[in-house]
Design brief:
- The structure is a homodimer.
- The first copy, chain A, is mainly alpha-helical and about 260 residues long.
- Chain A has two domains: about 25-90, Orthogonal Bundle (Arc Repressor Mutant, subunit A), CATH 1.10.10; about 110-250, Up-down Bundle (Four Helix Bundle (Hemerythrin (Met), subunit A)), CATH 1.20.120.530.
- Chain A is built from eleven helices and three strands.
- Chain A has helices at about 25-40, 50-55, 60-75, 100-105, 110-135, 140-155, 160-175, 180-185, 185-200, 210-225, 225-245, and strands at about 45-50, 75-80, 85.
- The first copy, chain A, has a three-stranded antiparallel beta sheet with strand order 1-3-2.
- The radius of gyration of chain A is 24 Å and the shape is elongated.
- The termini of chain A are far apart.
- At the A-B interface, helix 3, helix 5, helix 7 and helix 8 of A face helix 3, helix 5, helix 7 and helix 8 of B.
- The structure holds a DNA duplex (30 and 30 nucleotides).
Chain lengths: ~260, ~260
DNA sequence: TGACACCGATGTGTGCTGACATCAAAACTC
DNA sequence: GAGTTTTGATGTCAGCACACATCGGTGTCA
């Protein structure tokens, strides 16, 4: 016989979520808090109470707590007993986390974030090209050569949409071909900067003839296993890219992270 | 009148936590699962049930769920309704997260992780030095010069402990002085590789005379605002560092992250 | 009277649990 | 085979017990 199920609580239908987002409550909570912290709406040192967040987000403690735990792992907040949830200074944030990058790109820090990413690219891609020349599998080298030729075609024809697609794949293949998983992980961010550059009209009407040649140089050097040539050609691409983009962030102030005392 | 508070449950005293660790249950759970996943004990595609983890870790659902949420944000697992918690392939992990790096360094992936970090350093530090020459605040430039001189002293005197401390601070200052928060965030990882190099006896008895000179070159070039000289000197340091360390990871296989189709 | 150490009250994160809600895989029906 | 129902896992909620840092009061001593 089935014991009668005791119904302790009515289990009200819970408002049926008027804002019928497809995403989960957890996702929404992380997103809400992350954007507000990174965007500066919640300044460094600001203390929140879990209970207050429940009211603000209209969710239960579980959701708030799980979201706070995630933000904690990103370095955005810390929890202190008897005090609350405190917003940490920006230099404690994990600047490599995709979420943090996305939130910065969406807010005031957009310029500074793009500069950081561009500088990171300018550092990494030449070394990635050099490593790819030594390590990349044969099929990848050949695809790279093919793409560099297709880029020239698309560039000469003025087909910028196709050029962008090829450009993205080109740089993704170089990063992947390095055999370094940290480099490969930057593919997403590089893609973001490349698309952003065209979307925001920072791309020249036609790709520079030089840039097309440099891409082919990189591809052929990787194919030939010539690391230093690949590196130098990639460095040239990066220098030109930085030069093109620099005006858009020249006014952004630089922040100097304090070095922990020994 | 106060309504009588209905006591739904006795709330038993909860076993008083025999394993009286100083760390929180949440921390322990994240650590336990993270090390086992990154260490390979839980292979890609392995599916766990939350309830099973409760039993295994002897913790409640809240702790398991919060830990899983954090691991999810690191890209180590995904949760699927009606299926469970699935371990994701390594190329989905966030290779820049300090936790992931630490877990890899602690397990079989140690060699590959050190290579990745060293290659990242070799890419970033020259560019960081170049940027520092243009951006670093005056006080930082001067400290850098002072440290490079002290490094020479310590090196000539054979005081390797002091040399290591100075070396760490030197590279931290260069990264910080770049004014790029992503570069600055690598300070921790660079410190790890530097200490690891000496701890594991991969460091020469006396620092190379050339290396000492290169450090001074970097410092003076940054102080003088000469970016390209700083970059080239830093690149020389990196080349030598890589050459010293390479034997320790030459047998590690490289992994090539698949590039998403367009 | 004033400075300081102690100690209890208070409040907030941490952790545990039962009860649903939801949704997709799997089983079932036609 | 297509559509429907069942099932079983995560998702969410709410209440309680506990640990512990902080604050403020109290007592002691100078």
């Amino acid at each position: 016989m089935m014991p009668a199920r005791i119904r302790l609580r009515t289990g009200r239908p819970r408002a049926t979520m008027l804002t019928s987002m497809s995403t989960s409550l957890h996702h929404r909570a992380v997103e809400h808090l992350g954007t507000r912290i990174v965007g500066g709406a919640l300044p460094t040192g600001h203390v929140m109470l879990a209970e207050h967040l429940e009211d603000e987000l209209k969710v239960s403690r579980s959701v708030v707590r799980e979201a706070v735990r995630v933000l904690q792992s990103l370095g955005l907040v810390e929890t202190i007993k008897r005090v609350g949830i405190r917003v940490l200074p920006a230099h404690r944030w994990n600047p490599f986390d995709p979420l943090v990058i996305r939130w910065r790109l969406a807010g005031d820090g957009r310029g500074a974030q793009l500069r950081s990413l561009a500088e990171l690219r300018s550092a990494v891609e030449p070394v990635a090209a050099e490593l790819a020349a030594g390590n990349a599998p044969e099929s990848l080298r050949q695809e790279l050569v093919g793409i560099s030729l297709a880029m020239k075609e698309a560039g000469d024809a003025g087909d910028m949409a196709r050029f962008l697609d090829l450009d993205i794949r080109f740089h993704a293949l170089v990063l992947s071909g390095s055999g370094n998983e940290m480099f490969a992980n930057l593919i997403g961010q590089v893609t973001e900067t490349l698309t952003g550059r065209t979307v925001h009209g920072l791309m020249p009407e036609h790709p520079q003839k030089q840039a097309l040649q440099w891409h082919m140089d990189v591809a052929h050097a990787i194919d030939a296993g010539d690391g230093s040539v690949a590196r130098d050609a990639a460095a040239k691409i990066m220098r030109q890219t930085i030069a093109e983009l620099a005006p858009s962030w020249n006014d952004q102030p630089r922040v100097f992270v304090p070095v922990a005392k020994n």
